[in-house]
Amino acid sequence: MKHYSAAVIPGDGIGPEVMEVGLSLLQSIADIHGGISFQTESFPWNCQYYREHGRMMPEDGLQRLRPFDVILLGAIGAPGVPDHISVWELILPIRRSFQQYVNLRPIKLLRGLESPLRYKQHDDLDFVVVRENTEGEYSNMGGRLHVGTPYELAVQNNVFTRYGIERIVRFSFELAKATGKTRLTAATKSNGINHSMPFWDEIVKEISSDYPDIETQLTHIDALSAFFVSRPESFDVVVASNLFGDILTDLGAAVVGGLGLAPSGNINPEKQYPSMFEPIHGSAPDIAGKGIANPIATLWSISMMLDHLGERELGKLVLDSIEDVLIAGEVRTPDIGGKATTRELGDAIREQLYRRGG
Ligand code: NAD
Ligand code: MN
């Protein structure tokens, strides 16, 4: 019997709604498999917790998460609490202190869905974005001066380290190699950003010489955004800095059906610390409480979590079950053209899981 432990942070808004479905799925997987179990513990760290305690998590929060194999996060953010507090005091400390330097975001059109890009088919939309997750544009350095005067200014420093760039770029090449892909595209902007980006480009080129079988391309972020729409079939692995990767993956999510479908893993490849899996969407205050959020992004994130734990067959079983339900087309949440609730779609996927696996 294998035991896995997961710390669960349902969060705010639709976070707890999609996480409820995620936890049922874990239970179903354990039922089907018999040889594995998940021990989960829920942590109520969210904006409500912030209102009550003046902080997003307790002082020893990170220490409490440390012993778990993995972390599952719903979504964080609520009207009335500034986003820079909810994100900077919960998600970013977890990503950074647990060295989750890889943010893995598949961009893949699932079977049964159509892309808003009219002429694109499934095979055209199947690549992965590797977002650097610990440094770059999301630095904590900078400041504001002359506040309240006409001369007020803000400076935000970008931080790019050789260590940080090398490890994310190398990871991306290794991922390409391991998955039999032949093309690596690195997002850049060295024509406009004249210190950090030329440094990034140099390191990409250095490392690419270790991978002669992989065709490496440096593409400016503005053009790259356009290519995500005009020729997505030309990508296998895309590696990008923190901000560029963040923006590119919401765009990527949109071309494969929307934010309700898009999963992610914040990964510590060395497995020295827990990795964290979460849908890339936020707490969606506009639909929170209605029970209509799409749970697929969360369930797919759990599929990625299973892959990370080495349970690849189970990860595939989850994704296959999701696709079965999409192909059947009967149970869909409103964001993908149906009338089903979060729970109904979750139940349909679990039924399919039992059918395939049980
Ligand atoms: P959002 O992702 O919450 O919502 C954007 C749009 O997508 C909304 O119209 C929403 O209804 C829709 N949407 C998102 N997830 C969906 C789902 N599962 N099913 C159906 N529709 C879905 O982004 P936002 O509105 O910019 O941000 C809302 C809050 O979430 C903010 O506080 C923001 O800071 C936070 N946020 C948190 C995370 C995170 O927890 N990692 C990520 C992004 C945004
Ligand atoms: Mn984002």
UniProtKB/TrEMBL annotation:
Its EC number is 1.1.1.83. Its cofactor is Mg(2+); Mn(2+). Residues 5-349 form the Isopropylmalate dehydrogenase-like domain. One of its GO terms (molecular function) is NAD binding. It holds the Pfam family Iso_dh. It comes from the Bacteria. It is an enzyme of class 1 (oxidoreductase). It catalyses: (R)-malate + NAD(+) = pyruvate + CO2 + NADH. Keywords: Manganese, Metal-binding, NAD, Oxidoreductase. InterPro entries: ICDH/IPMDH (IPR050501), IsoCit/isopropylmalate_DH_CS (IPR019818), IsoPropMal-DH-like_dom (IPR024084), TTC_DH (IPR011829). PANTHER family: D-MALATE DEHYDROGENASE [DECARBOXYLATING] (PTHR43275). Belongs to the isocitrate and isopropylmalate dehydrogenases family. This is D-malate dehydrogenase (decarboxylating).
